[in-house]
Amino acid sequence: MAWFKRTQKGIQTPTEQKKDVPKGLWYKSPTGKIIDAEQLENNFYVSPEDGYHVRIGSVEYFKILFDDNKFKELDKNISSKDPLNFEDTKKYTDRLKAAQEKTGLTDAVRTAVGKSKGKDLVIACMDFKFIGGSMGSVVGEKIARAADYSLKHNIPLVIISKSGGARMMEAALSLMQLAKTSAKLAQLADAKIPYISLCTDPTTGGTTASFAMLGDINISEPGALIGFAGPRVVKDTTGQDLPKDFQTAEFLKEHGFLDFITPRSELKDKINLYLDLILNQPVR
């Protein structure tokens, strides 16, 4: 039994001297592919082996789309109130405060204006990490104001959707944003100012039922989940088995709901190409 006994003490490191590997050095995609975090960032947060597009937010999209990451943020300090005095397991005001402290955001969308390939562009980008990218009154108001800015200055608009749907804590006030944002986009259409909708993973609920599907050109990143209700809800409601890849970007493009699927590495070039085509300008 001596075989199973340690005869010499190995190198012993005191607990206080042990160091864990810092978190965030590596990323593992859903298919099990491992990628260095720095390499992932340099590759537009796309896993090079399987093409998986990691969820990112407004900070990353602004960096990708605006020239030299230079932009002016619009309506930065607008934040939600609690007119309905919503209280479930936690007060809405407390949840808002916690989300703001955790994310550094005031709400689930940021709007900004800057140059993209040398041309003026207004971008409204949703952040899923703020209460699931839910659409409340502030989201609707900021998108409406971004559309107003586009109208006033004759600048194209891009909205990047990433949302779980309407914000239940604002009830009907949240649902009113569907009509509000749709009306503003109709004004853009009347003024012949281009609007491109980029659907990312996930784009669901009231967002899909309003501005996300109203673009002059509707585009998406590969593999994005896009739909109104979730697949499980749809299956339980209809009692039918769902087709393969149901509610993926590829499925929607095949059935005519999307115009193009654009990898993130080509996003800036393709958006500007689409804008040039809409405006009938020479392609840069």
From TrEMBL:
Domain (CoA carboxyltransferase N-terminal) ranges: 24-284
UniProt keyword list: ATP-binding, Cytoplasm, Fatty acid biosynthesis, Fatty acid metabolism, Ligase, Lipid biosynthesis, Lipid metabolism, Nucleotide-binding, Transferase
Enzyme Commission number(s) of this protein: 2.1.3.15
Pfam families associated with the record: Carboxyl_trans
Chief place of localization: cytoplasm
Pathway involvement of the protein, from the record: Lipid metabolism; malonyl-CoA biosynthesis; malonyl-CoA from acetyl-CoA: step 1/1
Domain of life of the native organism: Bacteria
Enzyme class label: transferase
GO terms for MF: acetyl-CoA carboxylase activity
Location in the cell: Cytoplasm
Coiled-coil residues: none
Subunit field text: Acetyl-CoA carboxylase is a heterohexamer composed of biotin carboxyl carrier protein (AccB), biotin carboxylase (AccC) and two subunits each of ACCase subunit alpha (AccA) and ACCase subunit beta (AccD).
Protein family membership: Belongs to the AccD/PCCB family.
Function summary: Component of the acetyl coenzyme A carboxylase (ACC) complex. Biotin carboxylase (BC) catalyzes the carboxylation of biotin on its carrier protein (BCCP) and then the CO(2) group is transferred by the transcarboxylase to acetyl-CoA to form malonyl-CoA.
Matches recorded under HAMAP family: AcetylCoA_CT_beta (MF_01395)
Protein name: Acetyl-coenzyme A carboxylase carboxyl transferase subunit beta
The species this protein was found in: Gillisia lutea
Gene name for this UniProt entry: accD
